[in-house]
Design a protein that fits this description.
The chain has helices at 60-74, 89-101, 114-126, 151-166, 182-194, 213-226, 239-252, 267-275, 286-303, 323-329; strands spanning 47-51, 77-81, 106-109, 130-134, 145-148, 171-177, 201-208, 230-236, 259-263, 280-284, 310-312, 315-318. It folds into 2 domains: 47-149 and 286-304, Response regulator (Rossmann fold), CATH 3.40.50; 151-284, Rossmann fold (3-Layer(aba) Sandwich), CATH 3.40.50. It is 39% helix and 19% strand. Strands 2-1-3-4-5-11 form a 6-stranded parallel beta sheet, with helices on both faces. Strands 7-6-8-9-10-12 form a 6-stranded mixed beta sheet, sandwiched between helices. Helix 1 (60-74) runs parallel beside helix 9, helix 2 (89-101) runs parallel beside helix 3 and helix 4 (151-166) crosses helix 5. It has 10 helices and 12 strands. By secondary structure, it is an alpha/beta fold.
Length: 335
Amino acid sequence: MEKLCRLLLAGALTLSLAACGSNTASTENKTDNKATAEPAAESSDLDFYFISLMTGGAAWSRAEKGFNDACEELGINGQFLAPVERNNLVEMVTLLDQAVTQEADAVIGVYASTETFGPSLLNAKEKGIVTASVQLKLDPQYIDFMIGTNQTQIGIEMANALLEYSGDKDTTVMFLCGSAGEITNMQYEAFCKTLEGHDNITVLDMKFDDGAAATANQVISDEYTANPDLNAVVCLDSSAATIGAASFVEEKGLQDEWTVIGIDASADILNYVKNGALTATMNQDFYKMGHDSVVMAYELIKNGTQPPFENDSGCYLIRPEDVDAYAKANGIELK
């Protein structure tokens, strides 16, 4: 069947990371990797702030835990902040400005664009504050370093997972995301490029769930009604898409017919992988993003150790046989 890969042009972010590497091997005994620093003998006088898009959720709850764990390990006064309205950049800039006013030693955050956050970051650097970006690459004039996932590699790994589980059967796959942007464009482009030459796979246009699992479920239902050949979903940039896709498959009893590759590794998502509503899920190491950003900023401040400008936090596939070991290693309670 003809493969359709229409790349969206929308985008407001600039993200380019060093390769996270292909890693779809078993995650037996896999735990979140983290950097280490010499533990503080006593509480330091350092104040670190993390400006997040949101609190909670499969991804950012792990980033928060990593951030808090590192602050505790190093005796740092840490505050994990997020806007009242998720993804509200105006609120996030206000939180960043407040951290600078409070004479923070380091401000770590999800800085979506230099247009929005640039002036505040320049002000922070002028005051000698260490600035670090999570998931997004900004020009070095704004940040000291960045840490996050290679979005192109995620697209490649998702495509490889689909090929592995779909085999040679005719597959019509839907690409479901939270919202349009450069990150999703990069993932989608890499996904489509990897599938070139596999004529049994048809890739549909991207669809969006606006961060709501119920919306994701309905979007899939509408697409399935319009296109009965649909038998695969790949979820990127959205744990809501993963939950919505899994619930749809479970409701319709399609576990043995569909291939659904999710993203993130919350308890709900892992339960869906275990019971077959999800074929597998791709995990980004948000814990490492939160934890290692603190360690690198601490080493820079205390010891003058300059970290690499770009730091890949990695990604890997969690399969059904990996779920119990991963959950146990990371303190996640399953049903």
